[in-house]
Structure formats: C-alpha cells, structure tokens
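Following up on my earlier thread - several people asked me to post the actual chain instead of describing it. Fair enough. Here it is, all 133 residues.
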Amino acid sequence: MENFRFIVFKDNHTKIIELSSNNRIEDLKEKIKNIFNVDSYIDIDFIIEKPMRVIGKFNVEPGILPRTFDRYELDKFGIKGEINLTFHIVIDYTPFKNTRKVLDLRKYQEKQEIEKEKCLFNISSEKDFPKLG
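Reply from S.P.:
Thanks for posting it. Predicted structure:
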C-alpha cells in the first residue's frame, strides 16, 4: 500500500501529513482542519509547477481541487512523491450528504404474489385455451 506525503503551508506554518492510498480527499481535508483548528469547509490548493498526469488516473493540476473530487480515494489521482499544498477557508458551503432511502423490494413481491393468484388457469382447459382449427 502506497503512502502519500502532503506538505501543507498556511500563514508561515508548515505541517507534513502522510496518508495511505485508501484514504480519500475528504480525509485529507479533515486532517488539515484538525491540525490547523478550522471549523468550516476548506478548499485544497495544490502548489505545483506543472500538472501530474498518469494514464487512467485523475490529473493533479496546479490550483484549487474541485469539490466533486472529495469522495475519491488518493490512489485514483496521479500523485507522485511529495505534494505542496495550501488551503482556503470557505464559510458559506456545506458539502452534499447522500441521504438516499434504501429501496424495499418486499412491497413489490406482495403485489406480484397477489397478481399470480388472480391469474390461475388450467392449461388443459378448452375454455381457457380453445383449439385454433
């Protein structure tokens, strides 16, 4: 399992954060918030000279990482070596929480069983299946 090393710069303070590849960007943000005592949401800003590109993975480009990438694991990105970053505090934003309800399929099974009982017929009956000729 690969480990990633992030060097976080903010207001003349430097902190090093190491995370494993199965951690998500959201976990990185939580760790930064805990270290720097930030209560609100943050955006990560990569301080790199040129984009990091790996085939089959997300590009890591200089600048602010889009918020839609929060749910992805770090191994999905083309991160190589150490990465310098900073963060920006966002006051009026709350991340999307998935509140989908679990689909209960039993309610459909009950309807199907009732319909099967209505459709009982005798396959050898002349009334249900008259001869065609």
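The domain at 3-90 is CATH 3.10.20.90 (Ubiquitin-like (UB roll)). That should answer part of your original question.
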